[in-house]
TrEMBL record:
Keywords: Cytoplasmic vesicle, Golgi apparatus, Membrane, Protein transport, Transport
Protein name as annotated: Adaptor AP-1 19 kDa protein
Gene3D superfamilies named among the record's database cross-references: 3.30.450.60
Organism phylogeny: Eukaryota, Viridiplantae, Streptophyta, Embryophyta, Tracheophyta
KW Transport (keyword) present: yes
Amino acid sequence: MITKPVGVVCRKTLVNRVTRLWLWLWLQLQLQLRALIRFEMIQFVLLISRQGKVRLTKWYSPYSQKERSKVIRELSGMILSRAPKQCNFVEWRGYKVVYKRYASLFFCMCIDQDDNELEVLEIIHHFVEILDRYFGSVCELDLIFNFHKAYYILDEILIAGELQESSKKTVARLIAAQDSLVETAKEEASSLSTIIAQATK
């Protein structure tokens, strides 16, 4: 049995302890920075037409179905009744609602009181620009007939109420990859149904 010199063992434990200490300090620093740098937390996203019809909703905070319909009713009434020259920020139930009208649609996002409204306006504009790129001058009908794609685009931009992707090119690339996957799946499904139909004859 070969025994290691005592100095080597002590040096290894010392290195391990120092490494653990540095790792612990680094994690503490990360937690402190995360507490200082607060990201925007979006409570929910609503797309409302001028007629008060809801075209898209995404909820990032827990609301019951009854509360959701009440929120939609309240906000659509409040936002649709505002004059075009009024401010795009509305204080509501201890939150701020940031909205912007594009053509016949109102894009609304609800944020906390101390969040930055201008940043949320930029997120709304970012979402609209990506929709425009994808649909080619997006309109309300595009969102009605392709709502699943609008949800997919929104999910690429926002996750858990926070901005995930700010690059339009990256989002466009991911959407194109998703579309090609869907097309491949459709082709495989149609070829499978053809094979099954021939086998059952």
